């Protein structure tokens, strides 16, 4: 039976909780504290020292080691979920059933089955379910989106996008490398960001089919980690891919190639990129470095007669997690008429594509969606 949390009246602060206090959870926590009219009333995390440190720093009174206890005890309007992927669905569904709006870290869930259950819960509760696709809020991505939407390159017909690392397996032997806990390797971890910003840039074309491959060459040998992403740790075997590639056929005849790799013998810099060919021009974005810079190099390719008229558009500031949280709060404050348009459907669509890619790789064939 749904247990609805009364929504705040006009002028009252939104009562927010954050579950999980790793890097992502800290981004959510800090973002909420910068928004007027938000009261972070509770934090939940299993790491006692981290919980105490952050609760003290941000003056959060109520602290829980178990998220279940937090949902039971607190009267929250919204929560952020920033925990391992296998916990996204149970926490989100429990919160939505209590009438609490949910902002979850990516990916939405381990697979599309769990994602569908989350969307169903959001629709049944009439509450917001959003997912933190923060890379589409990058200043360079926003600039490129403006170029494409403004018709500068005409109709896009082919694109390729990637997030690649030299040695970037996140904690070898942890939950990240266990498919039952993570849902997969880099394709579902960082590849879902690539899929999201690429389809977003292209105007959300329908994906008709996928043909994918996955490779696991370095991780099983204890390779592919570094001081940032950790060496061998934890008790799980390496049972996911460390590199993936997927070719997506798009409605209207377009195509998109995606690569996502935690580890491969390549340039040592982390890199995200996007290249698109259009009927009237093209564009290329490359962001590379360690750490990754705030803005990448963006070029628009155009011809004027027999001469090229290539240029680099101005790039604004990164929105990243701050903008993700601000957008979520804005939708929650907009009221019930807006909530139904933010039920997690977009993230569910991403999950279905990722599932199809893994199926294609397993079965060695193209998979229709």
Structure, described:
The protein is of the alpha/beta class and 369 residues long. It has two domains: 14-134 and 322-339, 3-Layer(aba) Sandwich (Rossmann fold); 139-318, Dihydrodipicolinate Reductase, domain 2. It has twelve helices and 16 strands. An eight-stranded mixed sheet has the order 13-12-11-7-10-9-8-16. A six-stranded parallel sheet has the order 3-2-1-4-5-6, with helices on both faces. A two-stranded antiparallel sheet has the order 14-15. α4 links the parallel β4 and β5 (101-105). The longest helix has 19 residues, at 345-363. It is globular and about 65 Å long.
Reading off the top of the CATH hierarchy, the class of the largest domain is best stated as Alpha Beta
Give the neighbour order of strands across the main sheet.
13-12-11-7-10-9-8-16
The overall strand count is: 16
Q: Give me the CATH superfamily of the largest domain.
A: Dihydrodipicolinate Reductase, domain 2
- Taken in chain order, the helices and strands follow as EHEHEHEHEHEHEHHHEEEEEEEEHHHE
> Which CATH architecture of the largest domain?
2-Layer Sandwich
Q: Name the structural class.
A: alpha/beta
Poorly predicted runs: none
Q: Which term fits the overall shape?
A: globular
CATH level-3 fold name of the largest domain: Dihydrodipicolinate Reductase, domain 2
> What's the gyration radius in Å?
21 Å
